[in-house]
Amino acid sequence: MSPPSLPSPKVIHVDTRGAVILSEESPETRDSRGIYFPNHIEPVSHIAVDVGGSLAKVVYFTRSPESPSIAATHGSSSPSDISTPRSLSPSNSQHNGSQHNGSQHNGSPTPSSSMKRSGALTPLVLEPHHSHAGNGISALDDGFLRDSLIRRSIQHFPGGSLNFERFETDNIQDCVDFIQSLIQRSAEVNNVPIAEMRRGVKIMATGGGAHRFYELFKDTLQVEVQREDEMECLIEGLKFITLIPDEVYYFSDELIHSVSNPNTSCHTCASPKPTLPSISADGALERPSPDPPKFGVTFESNPTPQLPCLLVNIGSGVSIIKVDEDGTFERVSGTSLGGGTLWGLLSLLTPATSFDEMLAFSDKGDNATVDMLVGDIYGQDYSRLGLKSTMIASSFGKVFRKGGNKKSFSPEDISRSLLYAVSNNIGQIAYMNAEKYNLDRIYFGGCFIRGHAATITTLSYAIRFWSKGTKRALFLRHEGFLGAIGAWIRNIDATEEH
Amino acid sequence: MSPPSLPSPKVIHVDTRGAVILSEESPETRDSRGIYFPNHIEPVSHIAVDVGGSLAKVVYFTRSPESPSIAATHGSSSPSDISTPRSLSPSNSQHNGSQHNGSQHNGSPTPSSSMKRSGALTPLVLEPHHSHAGNGISALDDGFLRDSLIRRSIQHFPGGSLNFERFETDNIQDCVDFIQSLIQRSAEVNNVPIAEMRRGVKIMATGGGAHRFYELFKDTLQVEVQREDEMECLIEGLKFITLIPDEVYYFSDELIHSVSNPNTSCHTCASPKPTLPSISADGALERPSPDPPKFGVTFESNPTPQLPCLLVNIGSGVSIIKVDEDGTFERVSGTSLGGGTLWGLLSLLTPATSFDEMLAFSDKGDNATVDMLVGDIYGQDYSRLGLKSTMIASSFGKVFRKGGNKKSFSPEDISRSLLYAVSNNIGQIAYMNAEKYNLDRIYFGGCFIRGHAATITTLSYAIRFWSKGTKRALFLRHEGFLGAIGAWIRNIDATEEH
């Protein structure tokens, strides 16, 4: 069967008080879905940027005066959203390194009537007493959300969207230019002088690049730049985002099995029959696409409090952070074998020029031509140790034997092998830390996964395997933006009213 | 400073009751040192072979009538040892894949007068009441060794040597032919018909290939082939070999530091100042070579009981086995990122055609050109998390940025980066398992390490780092032969007297 397709909208309008993903767009930019907050009112503007080793992630808020239902119906045609320009770098939207257009609708900028209402790019604070029609998530009345987000405010705007963009850190100027144009456009649309606009804008910067590029941001944009600790932002972002209905998802055992074993329909397989933990959201399997796969992805539609948990943030490298029930956290581990490693290896070993191309290669590959399996060494299972003949004993272990001739191996097989190697390894180290700290929930964040089924399956299976089914791998639709979201969120308390 | 040189003899004659390494030969075949047992008497002959994913390791015994002191003086010129033929495969002695000649002395086979004494390739059993002049190791009177090894026997032969050979599993026929010629030669030298010789020889076969190649061995050699469980043999081999004086070694903190930081003499460095555990053998730093390096390797000259411990066997893949105080063991973990992975990757990414060439490349490389360091991301230390700017954040993380042009990167830098990546990863996973099972001693076995200083340093440092100095990485001179030695040892009890 073909890999399951995850919903990949360009903008998602989500009523955090309802439980509905209101609109879905084209599948191009699965990571850059907007989030709609109908009641979020905050008078101070800020843009958040998280500059990592390879990618710079931007989060910014645009207001929408329309109610969620209208926005949902119209989807991309809502005139109220600021249309962001296409990638400033001359590359197509498939290119991994280019910006993803978070809220592009018609392909051209359209000044919004609503933007005339106020000059600011204004996030709005949630008003707890507003009860929007929706699925009524009781969790959202829970004190936790209120404590994180709510600020009483004089001004009430009907809502807006969080938008997401990505840039290559190597082309940081593109990121700066983009933010520059955002500020510029906002000033134009609202007929305020740029100097006044700048006084109202604050850049929340996190990630390593917040330090490296502090001067660049400050001097070029001429706005206040506030540096925020990366780990703090990651955790804030995680705490926040996991409350959004249908943000968190995971693969069921059946889905893991069918993706891992596309050629078999047999259910007696290598994976242990795990006991499903009680955190599964519901029993229904989603069928998000017109051509439904055999099994869909399971979304946490009614998010419950998610702490304590382990966060495994997979970027260029990997950070592993334990988060206690009260929200305190500690970076307990990590590994240098991350997204950057896979990216780097495959860029030399295959013709792929983007990470998405590499993932596409891996989908078509057969790792057994390059990996040494248990069966290759033993001729059979090593049953005494519970090692099945199909398990990988040595990643890339067959390559040297064939005399090191690169042409002997297809880029597809190489890609699959190394994707498995990196993912399995991360899963194993993640599991060991979850076990050490007695945590059952393991969230995977970072730009590495990008909803790729084989990666998700591999991580899910690794956690299942090592934990004998007692722990669960959980994934996030906005996985790459945790830090940026956290930076954005963290300063709602700190903002002043205009 | 140049990397420390480990003693790399061709044959070591070791009196297990003394504490002296009696002779050292050329540095060519560091792995294949013979071990001399003056009192080992056993009437039944057997040869042991451990066939792994990539390499087949052979252990066999040859007798020497001379006393240890004479053998020590003469070293290679001892006529009593059976000279084994040079590699049967047409390759030089540097080639990783070829056989290493465990007991070659003069380069040509010399029938031994002592071999006429008895027809058998006979290992000898240790007689506890023999007290040879030597360093008097009290540990060897310890019941543990007796329980493992001692068998009363009518026949007393003055001694002999354990010899070691390696072959590529892909060329298993070479291994079979070698054993064939061993048996043949023994028959000729002792004037016994081959059929009679064969009746007295038993092949102890372990590793995955014991199953795969059982028929091949049995039918070609026409001797009894007994299959032994790989894990059992590994552990038996470990328990045995760690009792041999100067078999176990480790790098001191100073040595780790100086190898890791060849350009600095400063002692305030990234590595934490660990507390040395009480298992360090002695304070003296060995100076084994005529040109002593700044710091030498520390050998456990007076081995104490080594259990409980963790054994990390690094072959094509990695097995992690915990061994309890009473010798019972369990394979608790492993990783598919092993020697085969590094070997395979470097065979495609560099011009190297052997593993030793790859290691040589790595010695000259600078990983900072291909690895993304903490400093590259943050522009400085990430001190809040204790991450120094020189630490590796993403292995190979710089490669993609440079557009994936292979020519941008030297094979030396690539080799060093990937050696670090694989070794650091193994060290981390090993540490986590040692911590989980509360074990302070971590032995590294398998053919991956082969006394390579950078590898040993990386593994040692990883253990030090993660354990904050409470655990120690220990290495074995006969690291690759644990399984074969264990197979050989295991059947001393089972042998019958001739």
Automatic annotation (TrEMBL), chains A, B:
Residues spanning the membrane: none
Region (Disordered): 1-34, 67-118
Biased composition, class Polar residues, residue ranges: 90-116
Species of provenance: Tricholomella constricta
Pfam family for this entry, one: Fumble
InterPro entries, per the entry: ATPase_NBD (IPR043129), Type_II_PanK (IPR004567)
Protein name: Pantothenate kinase
Lineage: Eukaryota, Fungi, Dikarya, Basidiomycota, Agaricomycotina
Recorded superkingdom: Eukaryota
One annotated GO molecular function: pantothenate kinase activity
GO BP of this protein: coenzyme A biosynthetic process
Keyword field: ATP-binding, Coenzyme A biosynthesis, Nucleotide-binding
